[in-house]
Amino acid sequence: GQAPVGRAPSRVGMSPAPSSRERTRKLVWFVRHGEATHNVSHDSTTRDPGLTPAGYTQAVQLDASGALRLGAQLVAASPMRRTLETAQLAVPAQLGVPRIATHLLQEIGTSNADTGRPPAELRAEFGDAFDLSELEEMWYVKPAPWCKQRRIGLDDGQRALAARMADFVRWLGARAEERVIVVTHHGFLCHLLGIELANCEVAAMELTPTLEWAVQPTALVRHLPIVGIDRVPMRHKGSAPLRASRETIAKHYGAYVLAASERAVSPHSARGSWALVRRRLLVLQAAAIAGIVTLALARLERLLRK
To answer: With 70 as the cut, is the pLDDT of residue 8 above it?
Structure first.
């Protein structure tokens, strides 16, 4: 099923952004929501699905790990059920961190699974757990960025998606908080950061005063470029080439793609290995020539002695 198609919501709460001199560097922890029902069933016809029991466990374990207990001043979440549920569990209310829902963080697709619900329904389900003041009545209406059947990007949808990414960066840059947790979706993260995350995986990033993304220097996880066996970089519905942790590449793509991805960044990659082989052949060739010359000189010496 497809979501309603129409004009995208206006940019609620978008005030003029401060200059780069006025902005400070922000620490941002991006979280992909926990496992949702459509991630398991691969059925996108149910509108705004929630977490599975495994997804609840992932979010609770994320809180227990302490990975998000780093002095955050704000939780910004997509208004989809699975992201709101994840935010509630991974950053419990007792921590006292304010939570806000913004349509800018919603998933990029237009299937029922990627279609949210009006603010009144969210308020009835989540009460005052989130600030919903920035949501318009039909915040979830957006043009499709991708044609699944033809596997091509759709111009209007791609432009709208790029504009939403830019709007989110400006929105975040204009806020006063300097330590922010962002709970969002797989496709959104692929297009915003070029990073693919597993459910409840965290990417520690910095937003610079010039509104550019950088990996936090203290980040423990290294992201590799995802490269197919044919050496072609992986993309998601028109995104830039993707990167991911070794664990996520192995889980989502398998051992062969992980090996190809590791070769792409290794000094002993295919090209590097061939150069190493050539150097070794040259060494062996030189040694062989030296050996032949040595034998010839020895034979000549013996002949001269006769």
So the answer is: no
